[in-house]
Amino acid sequence: MNLTNCTRATEFILVGFPSVWGMENTIFACVSLLYLLCLMGNGLIIVMVVVDPHLQKPMYFFLSNLSCIDIGHTTAFIPKLLVNYLSGKNSICFNCCMTQMFFYFLFGTTEYFIITLISLDRYLAICHPLRYATIMTSGVCLKLATAAWFGGLFSILYQGVLTANLPYCTSKVINHFFCDAGPVLKIAGGDTYLVEVLCFLVTAVVVMSSLLFTLVSYLFIISTILQMPSTTKQQRAFSTCASHLVVVCMLYGSVCFVYLRPTVKNSSLRAIKYVSWLYTIMAPMLNPFVYTIRNNEVKEAVRKALRKKIPAFPKM
């Protein structure tokens, strides 16, 4: 087929999940609930960090960045997914698809840089408490966060441009519930080898280096915790680290399964579709609860905010 003279697709069809008769409303309700929990949990962190001076510290600054990323990451595709369920039309325009994919990978890639910064912050706070305040100043935190966002942008910009300029003439059906790189490249014409290699390299460099740094940081943190004289503090610290590492393993493991493949065209899209749930919906929803559920400072800030909003009734 002569791809140079083909009529370029103006819209795609998103297959979504395998249709189960009678389960459409249940799936819609579950996705809506998870998305709502993600917005509420992450939104609460952002608001509390902004309004409460006690939470304006490096750790919460990076957590608020992570919350912004999780909201953007899920909002890039879930509203469209819900609209498709309601309308029964699974079409998405070409420009919308490319825009969705760009922002999805922008937020997704930036997330790994921010998680790395959170690990660095916790390492300095626990392993070098006396030097922590002088190292993690507000200016340094702002520069690190800015570098993380620009790092995410420049990591995916070139391959995003290449993907958008490929010819899409042979098929309009994307076997996924959003415009992801693998399913989109599978229906693209022309030579997609360079885009696939870039996608593989970005995943290998960004994700694996972030994972390695995070794991090493937690090894040093655990080593420091073991030297604490108080058994209660050790148990509390280990409990917090364990919950963090569970989310880290789920996030990094699922992303490596999906994107660390030399040729995405030969990948099993059915398996990718299900594994994608872990890092596209579950991880953003769990992050605010995992990072703050055992945090007394956040709990106290929420209590103060509620007391201000709900005035006490006068005694009779």
Describe this structure in words.
The longest helix is centred in the middle third of the chain and has 34 residues, at about 95-125. Mean pLDDT is about 85; it is low at about 310-315. This protein is about 75% helix and about 5% strand. It is globular. The chain has helices spanning about 25-50, 60-75, 80-85, 95-125, 130-135, 140-165, 180-185, 195-225, 230-260, 270-290, 295-310, and strands at about 10-15, 90-95, 175. It has a single domain, classed as Rhopdopsin 7-helix transmembrane proteins (Up-down Bundle).
Largest sheet: 3 strands, mixed
Task: Going across the biggest sheet, name each strand in turn.
Answer: 2-1-3
Q: Kindly report the oligomeric state of this protein.
A: single chain
Structural class label: mainly alpha
Please state the second-level CATH architecture.
Answer: Up-down Bundle
End-to-end CA span: 85 Å
Instruction: Write the CATH fold name.
Output: Rhopdopsin 7-helix transmembrane proteins
Shape: globular
Q: Please report the number of helical segments.
A: 11
Approximately how much helix is present in the residues?
A: over 70%
- Write the element-wise H/E pattern from the N-terminal end onward: EHHHEHHHEHHHHH
β-strand amount: under 5%
Q: What does the radius of gyration come to? A: 22 Å
Low-confidence stretches at least 5 residues in length (pLDDT < 50)? 312-316
Q: Compute the average pLDDT.
A: 83
Q: Tally the beta strands.
A: 3
CATH class: Mainly Alpha
- The count of domains is 1
Supply the CATH superfamily name.
Rhodopsin 7-helix transmembrane proteins
InterPro entries: GPCR_Rhodpsn (IPR000276), GPCR_Rhodpsn_7TM (IPR017452), Olfact_rcpt (IPR000725), Olfact_rcpt_6C-like (IPR047132)
Main location: membrane
Keywords: Cell membrane, G-protein coupled receptor, Glycoprotein, Membrane, Olfaction, Receptor, Sensory transduction, Transducer, Transmembrane, Transmembrane helix
Membrane topology: Multi-pass membrane protein
